[in-house]
Amino acid sequence: MAIRDQLPATQGGGSHMSQSPLKLAADAAAPVVFEIPGAEGEFRVQILNEDQEKGVVTTIIHLPPGGRIPAHFHEAGSEMHYVLEGDLTENGESFGPGGFLTFAAGVVHGPHGSEGGARVLTVQQWQSGRGEFDFHPAEEGQGGAAAASTDAAGEGTSGEAAAGASVTDKSAAEAEAERRRGEEKGYG
């Protein structure tokens, strides 16, 4: 299902991105229910800015208390999360307000969750070239290790893939994603 099929229509026909500067209070963008494959709980999203042509979106994701998103990866591009309030758990590690996580395309991450609920500023390329939600479930236990993150105190951490893991360090899902990207570029 195309991501735009789940979202309210934009004013002016088609994109939240305009040529003129956009000044918007986050509260002006009403949160809408957003279905995430395999997720537990009712997630909501506020679209702050979207460039449908490039598939890039800036959102505030509302994680419900006890909510969970399974381990997954994205093929189209990178993703970053900045915790505004509440708690965000990434593969068992908890991040509070000011916590930052980023993941390159093809890197398995998650599961994500929240014990008490959270609001998380997210920027990502969330559409494939075909306009579909770029979300690919991965096997449990494969996520988290490849993320680069910063906690609220600014202390950086990085996993094996962020430091340049070899092919043998990659999960099957990551290897498959790389193979598909290579085929799309004519390497396979």
SSE topology:
Layout: E1 32-34, E2 43-51, E3 56-63, E4 68-69, E5 72-73, E6 79-86, E7 88-90, E8 93-95, E9 100-103, E10 112-113, E11 118-125, E12 136-137, E13 148-150, E14 156-158, H1 172-184
Antiparallel strand pairs: 1-2, 2-3, 3-11, 4-10, 5-12, 6-9, 6-11, 7-8, 7-10, 9-13, 13-14
Mean pLDDT comes to 72
Unreliable stretches: 6-17, 141-154, 157-172
β-strand amount: 25-35%
CATH architecture: Sandwich
Question: What do we call the CATH topology?
Answer: Jelly Rolls
Instruction: Give the total of beta strands.
Output: 14
Protein structure class:
mainly beta
Would you list the SSEs in sequence order as H and E? EEEEEEEEEEEEEEH
Number of domains: 1
What overall form do the CA principal axes indicate?
A: globular
**How far apart lie the N and C ends?**
28 Å
Largest sheet: number of strands, sense, barrel closure: 8 strands, antiparallel
Write structural notes for this entry.
By secondary structure, this protein is mostly beta strands. The chain has a single domain, classed as Jelly Rolls. The chain has one helix and 14 strands. It has one helix spanning 172-184; strands spanning 32-34, 43-51, 56-63, 68-69, 72-73, 79-86, 88-90, 93-95, 100-103, 112-113, 118-125, 136-137, 148-150, 156-158. The strands form three sheets. It has an eight-stranded antiparallel beta sheet with strand order 1-2-3-11-6-9-13-14, with no helix packed on it. A four-stranded antiparallel beta sheet has the order 4-10-7-8, with no helix packed on it. Strand 2 (43-51) and strand 3 form a beta hairpin. It starts with 31 loop residues before the first strand and ends with a helix.
